[in-house]
Specification:
heterotetramer; A: about 150 residues; alpha+beta; four-stranded mixed β-sheet; 3 helices; 9 strands; about 30% helix; B: about 80 residues; five-stranded mixed β-sheet; 5 strands; about 25% helix; nucleotide-binding (chains B, D)
Chain lengths: ~150, ~80, ~150, ~80
């Protein structure tokens, strides 16, 4: 079997992620696909760049998978996160969760994306027409106001 | 030596993805950060760290051959 | 463009449904895949048979799409429902919703499956090793206790 | 004539997917149901109906050429 929790520079496939969790015991599969949005806060993104601490990111995704198992013992989950240069509408992350009954699949799926944004060492850099910036906080509470702190690219 | 991995804008601050620092006098993550601050005049305040791929505290022990990663606020997903 | 709300006897594709709603304005796509579960209440399903009032079912799915637009104006949705004989793990329904921000995509998606189970004229018949039965109430409040009321197949 | 469509276990009750009933004396959905009850000795109490693909009430008018569907509790999804 392929890895259930992985980071890759290759395009992600919803078909493959869904297949990873589909099984006779499941009546529901919920998938989340995080896609590159063209406009964020009125500013046009040309492309995004994702970087990962690859080995640790996969470990953290697996850890989230174990958290899910503790909270929803009947759930099976799989996550793929892409790295590198992504164009508008490309899938950056796909999360698939299967459960016997659908309510749990929605809840566990949403739990996973929240946790990814908290504990998985992956970073994105916005590339605009007139600049670029590492995004500091996916929860959108803070953003480095002018490029990287302490210097760095503008 | 102690391996230091720099991600996202940390790469720009330190001019590369990997640094190697001498383990002499280094016992904890805090020592690593102090060293980087003085050697690179870099602001690493508030940065998270991992030692050998596990999230760490400032008090986490670091020894010869360990890998310390500088983890800016993550933005995956 | 293909129909966004359709009933078909052909296998459904998560790839195609996701593609229907993916767009530059969206940062999130949530998909629900309803799959045929092997065991329900301890009884083993051999296969399911889905029947639809085809033309009305598609109209009702479109009506649900309009309801979604009223509640989540930024959402785009697409639904495919399959009919005929379905084997264990086959997808009976796929719902795809895209929104700029993810919370809405989960909510709107769950809204759609709830509404399908209320107002779309589609029926399923369970085929077990020792019998068969039209399922009377998807909300699982009632089930005809012994086959069809007033006679019919056992 | 009035077309009557039968789905799910209604098909079994009426022995087919489509019936045609004479529109004489029929003005509403209620009249259709009464007719079916007496002509087929069938229990259609509590069944939902649609006239020309729109959900209907017992009081919904039905006339020559209309299609009335018998809609048991749905179980899609």
């Amino acid at each position: 079997m392929e890895k259930r929790f992985f980071v890759t520079s290759e395009p992600l496939s919803v078909e493959e992620l869904a297949a990873e969790v589909t099984r006779p015991e499941a009546g529901a599969v919920v998938q989340f696909i995080g896609t590159v949005r063209e406009f964020t806060k009125g500013r046009r993104t040309v492309y995004l760049e994702y970087e990962a601490y690859h080995s640790m990111a996969e470990k953290q995704l697996e850890a989230i998978g174990r958290e899910v198992k503790e909270r929803w013992p009947d759930a099976e989950s799989a996550v793929g996160h892409r790295t590198g240069e992504l164009q508008i509408s490309d899938a950056a992350v796909i999360i698939a969760v299967s459960t016997p009954h659908r309510k749990d699949a929605y809840e566990a799926n949403e739990y996973i994306i929240e946790r990814i944004k908290q504990i998985v060492p992956i970073w994105k850099k916005e590339h605009w027409e007139d600049g670029e910036q590492w995004v500091g906080d996916q929860l959108e509470q803070t953003r480095y106001p002018d490029g990287a702190p302490g210097g760095g690219n503008k | 030596m102690i391996n230091v991995l720099c991600f996202a804008h940390m790469k720009d601050i330190f001019g590369g993805e990997r640094l190697a620092i001498n383990s002499g006098g280094i016992a904890t993550v805090k020592d690593v950060l102090e060293h980087l601050k003085s050697a690179y005049d870099a602001d690493v305040s508030g940065i998270m760290t991992a030692v050998n791929e596990e999230f760490a505290e400032e008090s986490t022990p670091v020894s010869q051959g360990d890998t310390v990663a500088l983890i800016p606020p993550v933005s995956g997903g």
